[in-house]
Amino acid sequence: MNIIKPAALLLAASALLAGSTVAATAADPAGTRVTALQRAADEVLAGKPKPLQVTADAVKYEGLTVTEAPRTKAAQDLACDYGHLCMVVKGTKFDFYRCQTWNVHNWTGDGPFTNNQTRGTVAKFYNQDGSVRWTSTAYQAGTATWDPIWSLRPC
User: Fold this and answer.
1) Strands (E), 1-150
2) Helix, strand, coil proportions of the chain in percent (round to 5)?
3) Among residues of the chain, what percentage have pLDDT more than 70?
4) Which residues 6+ apart lie within 8 Å of 86 measured at CB?
5) pTM score, two decimals?
6) What is the pLDDT of residue 73?
């Protein structure tokens, strides 16, 4: 009798923990599990590239890591590894580290950015027609207005 009670408590605690993890995910139309973070990334990444790895804390693509944005809104507090271009869009942190054109959509509002690439590397942000909207030369940090940005090239 004494063993049954602790076992029941352990089972109940496990169910509570599992419930909090499951609540953070939902099924997509294909029936696979999708985290809230991945849904946030999909909302602003045009073409929805296939993630390489999805965890509760990050969605990793080839050349991009998406995480929850830090609570601070100051660019100087936005941790960004050397060689990376980081920004916060709609409460989500995007950490680009691959030199390619990234198509995006639904980028609105303002957010901090840090261009911590090799000194002198120019990141370009494009309008819908492909013309350059603005550029950032490394090292630079500040606040950007994202709308309307339709694509970007970190290098």
Assistant:
1) 25-27, 33-35, 53-54, 58-61, 64-68, 84-89, 92-96, 102-103, 110-116, 122-126, 132-137, 140-145
2) 20, 40, 40
3) 72
4) 78, 79, 80, 93, 94, 95, 96, 113, 114, 116
5) 0.71
6) 63
Percentage above 90 pLDDT, the chain: 43
**154 DSSP 8-state letter:** -
Q: How many Cα atoms are found within 13 Å in the side-chain-facing hemisphere of 137? A: 2
Residue-level pLDDT at 28? 43
Q: Is the dihedral of CA 9, 10, 16, 19 positive or negative?
A: negative
User: Which pair of tokens denotes residue 64?
Assistant: 């991009």
Question: Within a 13 Å sphere around the CA of 13, how many CA atoms are in the beta-carbon half?
Answer: 6
The tokens for 36 are 């809230």
The structure tokens listed for 79 are 């941790």
What one-character DSSP code corresponds to residue 3? T
User: What whole-number distance in Å separates Cα of residue 79 and Cα of residue 76?
Assistant: 8
Give the pLDDT score at 35: 74
CB 151 within 8 A of CB 136: no
Does the pLDDT of residue 19 top 60, yes or no? Answer: no
Q: What per-residue confidence (pLDDT) applies to 14?
A: 32
Calculate mean pLDDT across residues 88-109: 90
